């Protein structure tokens, strides 16, 4: 997995965002510039100029039409992605730490800093998707965080809730329409640095200075998974195609000059989403990772660090073949072929018998695919029962009555399909009493013995 290194910023990266289709990447840094890149080859498409302070955050709407950004110049700016034109500027008394569009792009959320006597707030604006429309000046909702300031926030599924992470490590759930707080849970023991959503926005992942990352349900803020690292974490992302999460962090930037990259722990860490185990690391940055983002299409991920570089990673084929036995894993549809109709195809061949087989049976040696394509076992459902077990299927009282009166004018009727049997085999003996047996298949011997006892064989579908 060879990365593409992008050097478009002069200072530390603060956030990376993918477009919904995963074809574009937007990077923000402390150098007052937003860069747009092609994710496939790292080509820079353009830059967005206008902020007068460090840009802390950005987000792109679902149609890749509008870009929002928040900066230390106390403004949120709305941009036309195609032309780079600034469409709207909203001013605030303090810096903007996080912006995020709703799932449908009709709302924009911003998180303001707690500073100079001003409490931290979460503001929500209605957004008109048309780039020529005039945007509203005032927010439709303002949530004031009186206890601990919010550092990150976002909209849940269907714009139902606003989920916010706070400086004290707690997470809050607010009504997205009224701003009423429903739940407030202490999730972390340290500052929450990042909050990113799963593809369906029903759960989210957090990253904290307490060296843990956690997956939380958006519905009730219940804790689902915990990933423990050995360094403070700045960012976390969920991969959409495979069950992995990516964590980024490292030693604090102020201490980086005195340590090596290995001691600083500047790698991107991969954890299994279900089992919570660390499965690998990707190194490369020579400063702490400030942000990681996963491609929404599952093709790779990007990371940005204190070193000012954006690194785009495209997953190798082995990443998608990780689960053995999958069709694309090089092993066909099965892993060990036990009792499987496809077989192994006489694997091997360092012997003379392959020469003879290739001569007299060309194409037989070696695994060349399924011999029977898309075999559905239901077509071959044929549970069998032996002749000597038939009378055991008749209820006890009726069986004893028939066996006691061998000259009765009636005979028991035994339909085997509802009882879970399809074929009758001829092993064993049956009483010399007439019996009517219904089944799909009868062996020749079974048919002979039933008829010799005076019984009748009936074939049913």
TrEMBL record:
Its main location: cytoplasm. Residues 331-353 are annotated as: Disordered. GO terms for biological process: formation of cytoplasmic translation initiation complex. GO terms for molecular function: RNA binding; structural constituent of ribosome; translation initiation factor activity. SUPFAM superfamilies: Ribosomal proteins L15p and L18e, WD40 repeat-like. WD repeats lie at residues 6-47, 48-89. The keyword Protein biosynthesis applies. It is found in: Cytoplasm. Keywords: Cytoplasm, Initiation factor, Protein biosynthesis, Repeat, Ribonucleoprotein, Ribosomal protein, WD repeat. Coiled coil: none annotated. It holds the Pfam family EIF3I. Gene3D superfamilies: 3.100.10.10, YVTN repeat-like/Quinoprotein amine dehydrogenase (2.130.10.10). Component of the eukaryotic translation initiation factor 3 (eIF-3) complex, which is involved in protein synthesis of a specialized repertoire of mRNAs and, together with other initiation factors, stimulates binding of mRNA and methionyl-tRNAi to the 40S ribosome. The eIF-3 complex specifically targets and initiates translation of a subset of mRNAs involved in cell proliferation. Belongs to the eIF-3 subunit I family. This is Eukaryotic translation initiation factor 3 subunit I.
């Amino acid at each position: 997995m060879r990365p593409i290194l992008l050097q478009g910023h002069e200072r530390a990266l603060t956030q990376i965002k993918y477009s919904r289709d995963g074809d574009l990447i937007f990077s923000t840094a402390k150098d007052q510039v937003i860069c747009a890149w092609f994710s496939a080859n790292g080509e820079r498409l353009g830059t967005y100029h206008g902020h007068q302070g460090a840009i802390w955050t950005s987000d792109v709407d679902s149609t890749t039409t509008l870009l929002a950004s928040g900066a230390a110049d106390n403004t949120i700016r709305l941009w036309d992605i195609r032309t780079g034109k600034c469409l709207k500027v909203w001013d605030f008394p303090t810096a903007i730490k996080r912006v995020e569009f709703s799932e449908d792009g009709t709302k924009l959320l911003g998180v303001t800093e707690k500073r100079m006597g001003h409490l931290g707030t979460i503001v929500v604006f209605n957004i008109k998707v048309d780039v020529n429309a005039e945007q509203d000046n005032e927010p439709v909702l303002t949530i004031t965080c009186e206890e601990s300031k919010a550092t990150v926030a976002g909209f849940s599924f269907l714009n139902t809730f606003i989920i916010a992470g706070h400086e004290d490590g707690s997470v809050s759930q607010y009504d997205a329409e009224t701003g009423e707080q429903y739940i407030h849970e202490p999730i972390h023991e340290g500052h929450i640095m990042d909050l990113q959503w799963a593809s369906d926005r029903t759960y989210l992942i957090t990253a904290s200075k307490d060296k843990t990352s956690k997956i939380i349900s958006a519905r009730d803020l219940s804790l689902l998974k915990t990933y423990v690292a050995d360094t403070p974490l700045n960012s976390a992302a969920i991969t959409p195609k495979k069950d992995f999460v990516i964590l980024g962090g490292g030693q604090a930037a102020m201490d980086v000059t005195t340590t090596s990259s290995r001691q600083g722990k500047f790698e991107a860490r991969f954890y299994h989403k279900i089992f919570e185990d660390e499965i690998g690391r990707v190194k490369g940055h020579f400063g702490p990772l400030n942000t990681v983002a996963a491609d929404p299409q599952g093709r790779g991920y990007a990371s940005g660090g204190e070193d000012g570089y954006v690194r785009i990673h495209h997953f190798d084929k082995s990443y998608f073949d990780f689960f053995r036995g999958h069709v694309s894993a090089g092993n066909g549809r099965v892993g060990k072929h036990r009792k499987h109709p496809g077989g192994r195809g006489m694997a091997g061949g360092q012997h003379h018998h392959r020469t003879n087989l290739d001569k007299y049976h060309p194409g037989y040696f070696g695994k060349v695919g399924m011999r029977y394509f898309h075999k559905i076992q239901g077509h071959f459902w044929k549970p069998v029962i032996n002749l000597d077990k038939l009378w055991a299927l008749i209820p006890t009282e009726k069986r004893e009555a028939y066996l006691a009166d061998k000259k009765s004018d009636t005979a028991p009727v035994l339909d085997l399909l509802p009882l879970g049997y399809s074929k009758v085999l001829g092993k064993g003996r049956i009483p010399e009493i007439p019996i009517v047996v219904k089944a799909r298949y009868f062996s020749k011997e079974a048919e002979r013995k039933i008829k010799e006892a005076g019984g009748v064989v009936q074939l049913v579908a």
